[in-house]
Amino acid sequence: MPPKPTLPAFLSSGVALAAVTIAGLVSVWAVPAEARRLQAPTQTASTPFAPADSLEGNYLSAYIAGASRDTAAAAVFYREALKDDPRNPELLERAFVSLLADGDLAGAARSAERVVARDPSNGLAQLALGVRSLKARQFSGARSYLTRGGARGRAADLTATLLTAWSYAGSKDTKRALETIDQIKGDRGFSAFRDYHAGLIAELGGNDAEAERRLKSAYDTEKTTLRIVDAYGRFLARKGKVDDALDVYRAYDALAPRHPYVKSAITLLREGKPLPRLVASATDGASEVLYGLGSAGSQQGDDLASIVYLRLALQLNPDHALAIVTLAEVFERMKRTEQAIDVLRRMPVASPLRPSAEVQIGLSLEQLGRGDEAVKQLEALEKQRPDDNDVLVALGNVYRSRKQYAEAATIYGRAIDRTAATDGGLWPLYYYRGTALERAKDWPAAQADLKKALDLVPETQPIGRSQVLNYLGYSWVDQNINLDEAFALLKRAVELNPRDGMIIDSLGWAYYRFGHYEDAVRELEKAAELKAGDPVINDHLGDAYWRVGRKLEAKFQWQHAKDSGPEPDDLKSIEGKLASGLPDEPKPAEAEQKAGEPTKSGG
Predict the structure, then answer these.
(1) What is residue 583's DSSP assignment?
(2) Distance CA 358, CA 23 (A)
(3) How far apart are CA 573 and CA 582, in angstroms?
(4) Which of 349, 427, 481, 549 has the fewest Cβ atoms surrounding its Cβ within 10 A?
(5) CA distances from 326 to 314, 321, 374 (A)
(6) How far is C-alpha 255 from the geometric centre of its chain's CA atoms?
(7) Strand (E) positions, 436-522?
(8) What pLDDT, on the 0 to 100 scale, is given for residue 2?
């Protein structure tokens, strides 16, 4: 199944550096099955949460908010419930976590004091108090809090050790800071994280030789991690090694083209302008620790842990642009779009990520059903930045989401016309226009654009290449044309991106069209597991089940597809199958082809 084209990811912060969890956080937010049945709907607008009139009402409301990951509502209701039952330890801990996740760090710290008074081993509460001390530049006090938490394990030790090292850096004891950080042992990712922070600490402490050694070591280990690349490039530029710095940034740009930080750095270096240090203070360094852990949690789907770390990072450095972007990403994934917009509006005006954040706000407004505001936002940005293709692509995506495909294709075409043939960002524009033209029923033009995108997308971008392969291959399968070639494209797409449920669905549907129903079931079951709520995948799986005689399961899948919000035309088809099943098996599609039938394995 073709994915919906989106704006190229400007939010990527690179490869995850460490796996993190917060001990006890899941249990604090866990809710019983009865409460899950009362989950609140997806947030669509800013809502003032009026507290209930009773302890029970506020407690139940807080449970429901927690079940739907609505941090703002949970914080309000737990705070109110705590007023009526201030000695309840479970309620106190839940209120503390909710306040922390909602960004009320002052309220969370007050609750943390009460939590540790009852339970000094609560690691999360001690961490929150340690961060408060770091922000106040009370570095000795911060170390005291960081060593008191009873929670142990690799993630807890990593967090405490790194923050303790930065507290020594704040106390101007660089030697002790480096000794502390060298206690971190582990695999490749942990060693890179260690050397990265050791390099930043050494640079802040004036030990440039050690800083260069450590940052180079981190870079040699993780050349695909943006933050490490940026820190090393900035250090080299500050030492007068501008050509070396440019090489570092260009190498990253070849792997992940057009990242705003990298584009900005290259432009400044070419203009002979200086690049400031990545970390200017010990509190900034501690913020960087928390950002890195929050980013890793986000990439692993640990949303609440990620939110807490990122909130703490922004407490120490409110202008940390990547923490802002990553926190907004988490809220978007949790369907808390209004909160994501609020976070993005905090982006510093001078940040290279500000333009992309403004574009994302426009896209998020469209998701909220506020289309007029979205268009107004993006059209205003187009006037301010007439040469910014990201604005045009976003505007095209808005029109595409409204099914105004011809208009979207025209806008994508404007972006193509003003993009150089050598620009690494050209292939996505052909891809977007091709998808819009396909939806507009102009298949010859769509096919030409998709083939052009496939010619342009480099092998070094496997995710992008898999998307183009998938869309072109699925479109051929859906039209019963070029089936052998389509099958080859789809198998290659799965090889490049084996965890994408939509791409696996395409391969499964190709098997179905060839009459290989057992193979189709195998692939479509994988797709449904990876993307359980997608109506098209569930509809396809129902069809495959029917053909292999699993008719009860087929009807279950069709019902699931019906309940998952399918397109109107698909809904009509699904309802017909629920009523009457599938007609007798048609002649396999490959019999209509002059080309030879693929083997059972799809070769």
Answers:
(1) P
(2) 35
(3) 10
(4) 349
(5) 11, 9, 21
(6) 18
(7) none
(8) 55
The HSE-up count of residue 57 (CA atoms within 13 Å, CB side) is 7
Spatial CA neighbour of 471 closest among 511, 513, 430: 430
Separation of alpha carbons 472 and 517, rounded Å: 22
Map tokens 């770390």 to a residue: 309
The residue length of the chain stands at 603
Environment class of 443 (CB within 10 Å of its CB; exposed 0-12, middle 13-18, buried 19+): middle
What is the greatest pairwise CA distance in the chain?
79
The DSSP H or E segment spanning 542 is helix 535-547
- Gyration radius of the chain over CA positions: 26
Phi-psi bin for 587: left (phi > 0), alpha (psi -120 to 50), beta? beta
User: Closest Cα partner for 155 from 274, 300, 354, 2?
Assistant: 300
Q: Tell me the two tokens of residue 408.
A: 């979207």
Q: Does residue 35 contact residue 63 with C-beta atoms inside 8 Å?
A: yes
Phi/psi at 12 (5° precision): -60, 130
Q: Which tokens is 71 given?
A: 């941090």
The pair of three-digit structure tokens given for residue 57, joined into one six-digit string = 């009402």
H/E segment holding residue 331:
helix 321-333
Amino acid at 82: L
Residue 279 sits at φ, ψ, to 5 deg, of: -125, 120
Higher-confidence position of 452 and 568: 452
* Burial degree of 592 (CB within 10 A; 0-12, 13-18, 19+): exposed
Q: Which residue has the tokens 């789809």?
A: 490
Question: Is 351 within 8 Å of 339 (Cβ atoms)?
Answer: no
From CA 241, how far away is CA 246, in angstroms rounded?
Answer: 9
Query: What are 131's two structure tokens?
Result: 């961060």
The amino acid present at 287, given as its one-letter code, is S
Angle between helices 426-439 and 389-401 (to 10 degrees): 20
By the 10 Å C-beta count (0-12 exposed, 13-18 middle, 19+ buried), 579 is classed as: exposed
**Where do the domains of the chain lie, and which CATH numbers do they carry?**
465-603 (1.25.40.10)
CA nearest to 360, candidates 396, 402, 390: 390
**Residue 440 is encoded by which pair of tokens?**
């507009």
Task: Tell me the residue ranges of DSSP E strands in 236-290.
Answer: none
Rounded CA separation 125/95 (Å): 12
At position 91, the amino acid (one-letter code) is L
Instruction: Tell me the per-residue pLDDT of 73-127, one tens digit each, with 9 for 90 and over.
Output: 666 676 666 665 666 777 777 878 888 888 888 888 988 998 899 889 888 999 9
- Fill in the amino acid letter for 401: S
- How far is Cα 189 from Cα 113, in angstroms, rounded to an integer? 34
